[in-house]
Amino acid sequence: MSAATATTASTTTTTVVAPSDTLDGTALAAAAASKYKPTTVEHGNTPITLDVGLLSSFDVNPLTKSYNTDREAYLCSRARNATQALINHIFQLPVSRHPDHGPLAALPRFTTRLPREKSMPKPKPLTKWEKFAKAKGISSKKKDKMVYDEATGEWVPRWGYGGINKKEEDQWIHVLKSGEDADTDPAARARGERKARKLKNESQRLKNEARARAEMASSSKATDTLGGPTNKKTGLGSGSADQIAKAAARQKRKAELEADVLRNRTSTASMGRFDKRLDGETKPKGIKRKFDPAEGDTTAERAQSLALLSKLGKGAPTSSSMRRKMAGQGDDELVNARKAVKFATNGSGINALKGKGRSGAAGGKKGGRK
To answer: Which listed site, 168, 243, 343, 349, has its alpha carbon 20 to 30 Å from 210?
Structure first.
């Protein structure tokens, strides 16, 4: 574009000369439109279904004849159309600004119901009291852990350390009822009643657990893990390889849990001998001692006896010889020598043999002087 300017003393006049070729905006718009595809979406007979929460779109329209002409181009066109519909909907969502990530769109909750991998958990069986309360319309209300003690004016626990249930046991004076024996111990009686209540609650808990296990077993329709006959040796059924592998892993886990339970039971001071056993719990098997047969080949016994006699004939070992044996021989030889010395001295040890020898020598000299 060219322009001519004329300047005078008073005014300035600018003259614009139109160019010979004018700019065509329609051509520029057409060129830009040919480079990018439009954002409009062709839904077809059935609208495209969107689940923006999962960022997914579903085009359920049937295929047309263009599919047979150019399959790849047709599928790309359909996929691009469904994706464009999803993008258009995302740009209509409310946007928030993040200082690091920029604009963020708030996605709604997804509407597609995805299938579960596992079955729905079964409802927990009701206890005997819960069934009775439900039948009678009794509302369950938990007791407060802290109660108010009017004697001290403080809030104390209902049970446990410093609990109010032990108040009668800890008080220093008791009022006997009329007709009670003077030798009655109210503290011991209260302690016994508290322990009896504790045992009753524990027995009720065990009964509820047994009843719940029975109900769960009766409600389950599957009689076997794999739905087929079970091998008594392996505990596995006759199913597919995947089912057998799962059953084998379950059996292994069960064996590990049983080993952990047995280890915990034997970790007490009495090795689990005086612990209370649950219903159906097996008795722990201890380690049996192995004894040599009373009758049989006496070659090994003769060799052991001769070895012991040969060590006894050598005399009492000195401390230097013991150190040499510890340095040159194994622990078995050292233990056998100690046993031999204890047997010869009735458990007194090497020092008894040394003292006996010195006392004998001194006695001989004393007798000589006489």
So the answer is: 243
